[in-house]
Amino acid sequence: MKMRDLFYSIGLLLLTSCSVGKSAFSPAKKYPPEKLLKDYSIYRQILEEAHPSLYWYQEKDSMDHYFEIGRSQLSDSLTEQQFRRVLVWVTSKINCGHTSVRASRRYSRFVDTTRGSRLFPLSLKIWDDTAVVTANLDRTSPLKRGTVINSINGLPFATIVDTLFKYISTDGYNTTHKYQALSNRGYFGALYTSIFGNAPVYNIEYVDSTGQTRHTALKTYRPQSDTASRAAIRAIRSVPQPSRRERRMIRKNSVRLLKIDSVNHTAMMDLNSFGRGYGLKGFFRRSFKNLRKNEIGHLIIDVRANGGGSVTNSTFLTRYISDHRFKVADSLYAIAKRKKYSRYIKNDFFNRLFMTFFTRRKSDGNYHFRYFEKTLFKPKKRNHYDGKVYILTGGNSFSATTLFAGTLKKQDNVTIVGEETGGGAYGNSAWLIPDVTLPETRVRFRLPLFRLVIDKDYPKTGKGIQPEIISKPTIEAIMRGIDYKLETAMELIRRDKETGQSRINP
Fold first, then answer.
1. Quick one: CA torsion of 75, 80, 85, 89, rounded to 10 degrees?
2. For 34, what's the count of Cα atoms within 13 Å in the CB-facing half-sphere?
């Protein structure tokens, strides 16, 4: 699953700033404790029976303790959103970035009909001990891009972040991904209002451009009262709509795009997904043919927004750059084929068919997908790229993107630039991830069925792929809208050219 889709699902899940509209569904409906406990029991039993990495980063007694804390909060009637909040907290303790809780379909449809009725107005870039405004829906507010936020409603920002971190799932102990999740547009506001409540006014302490500490009151943003926005929407509607072919091309270019500077023999590949449906294999073939034709000696591959997708696609790209044979995984296995509550698991019949025909149960009792455990993938011969490669990574680089970056990191002609990947360097649980729908509340959660160990010799630190050249945000860069990671890569290229360390395909 693409990481941006995961962020959308979590934002939808945690959104509380909505009121009862035309839909018959009411978010204020409460479920009695017996129904909540039934759903919670099924949720726990399915995870214990089928999740391959439930105890990967948590000891069993610790996970049991968290399960019991969650259960203790179900003694009174709760709304769906309150129940989900309990599940989100417990799920985050698994430390699996591919296991998440989603709203019921009824709740999702309701939110679609009332979307944006009340919004937290700020988007922020958050890292370490710093929170900086990147966008503000209130155009009259003094909180412009680059403004540092100290506190909201009297709570220091560090306290707010520590609280929100407890509700974000990630691979292992990766905090880079959690900071990035809070920095993705709309995510901080959705999670903040879910945990701390949606207030009509937020009291903000901030630092102004002179370094002075100031205070301001920020109102909840209501799109329906924003006449300027509605006027802009009306203007857009009068513009002729693109054709179906143009829409397909726009969609593809939003995911993959190659830009070539033939004069300076430099190229940049924007790659925001390894998902299917974007024609990536054809795109890669054409791209590397053009790189060879134009004698491009330096290639930047930007995977900062790439949440993963098809391992077939990520492997295909890796073969154009890798100078050695490589495996996708040292081990890839499921711990269970048949499940007690299979009727609540989407596509369970077909997933069991897959395991029957493509996995083999070994002496450890697990169902191993031997193809990826045994296959050594060879580098491409035709249009193989031997120039200098700079891979831009960050907290949104997840799943198959981690496989791609990890395989190439050790090569002399490849440099990882930016921040730690969100996906785990040691491995993840990202193969076959069906939705489970709980019978009483209809709340859903994602259930990974396979554990993938990328490199058994890699230290199991619970961290992502570490960059060789660290490039982190600064307040000035945010204020000026500078792409600091790209600037770092371009500076490395300038140095390479000065020292003659460019290699162009023969």
1. 70
2. 0
